[in-house]
Specification:
Elements lengths: L3 E6 L3 H4 L8 H17 L14 E6 L41 E4 L21 H7 L4 E7 L1 H14 L3 E10 L3 H14 L2 E2 L1
Parallel strand pairs: 1-2, 1-4, 2-3, 4-5, 5-6
Bound molecules: pyrazine-2-carboxylic acid and zinc ion.
The site of zinc ion has 6 residues, from loops.
């Protein structure tokens, strides 16, 4: 599984059971854990220590309390993923797989909406794109929440940058079913492979 990475988009409590709880979110978390475990197990070699078969990168919506996308500020969304709150935390079932250097934050500037994780940055100031590039990854599997917004925008940016993009269709949550179906069709038409 060289040359492969998994990008997990916004599997954060506000999108799972919080202010913006999305459809299929809990199931998407379970499917993501399953995916990581199954692919991880595939890397097991005799009695050798299991090393992860592929790196898993996490994208996190990470807003200040007065972010411009919030309704109180005239934006479209209820307050969500506010820095320092439970709603901004990655689901506990995924925590074992989280590495700081592979965790990328977006939407942290008050004025900027940032649906795509492509330019999210880690604590060292590196972008997701930069890190994929350094690791020499060309094939990116994507799962996460929400299909119509952050998942779609992240997938499209990866595709435009030249990556092969595989969207794990059982491991995504969405705001509205119709928008989810439309976004899937649009992505597939663009060359993103649904797996
Ligand atoms: C998202 C709306 C607002 C997402 C983030 O993760 O899809 N959607 N902020
Ligand atoms: Zn947001």
């Amino acid at each position: 599984m060289k040359d492969v990475a998994l990008v997990v988009v916004d599997m954060l409590y506000d999108f799972i059971d919080g202010s913006m709880a999305c459809a299929n979110a809990e199931n998407a978390v379970r499917e993501t854990v399953k995916y990581i475990e199954e692919k991880g197990a595939a890397a097991q070699d005799g009695d050798d220590v299991i090393t992860a078969a592929f790196p898993t990168l996490f994208v996190c919506d990470h807003h200040p309390a007065d972010h411009s996308s919030f309704k109180e500020q005239g934006g479209p969304w209820p307050a969500h993923c506010v820095q320092g709150t439970r709603g901004a935390e990655i689901h506990d079932d995924l925590k074992p797989y989280v590495e700081e250097a592979l965790t990328f934050y977006k939407g942290y500037r008050k004025e900027t909406e940032q649906y795509s994780g492509f330019e999210g940055i880690n604590d060292a100031g590196q972008s997701l794109y930069e890190v994929l590039d350094i690791m020499d990854i060309h094939n990116v599997y994507v799962c996460g929440i929400a299909t119509e917004y952050c998942v779609k925008n992240t997938c499209m940016d990866l595709l435009k940058a030249g990556f092969n993009v595989y969207l794990i269709k059982d491991a995504i949550g969405y705001v509205a079913h119709e928008g989810h179906v439309e976004a899937l069709a649009e992505m597939e038409k663009s060359g993103i492979r649904l797996v």
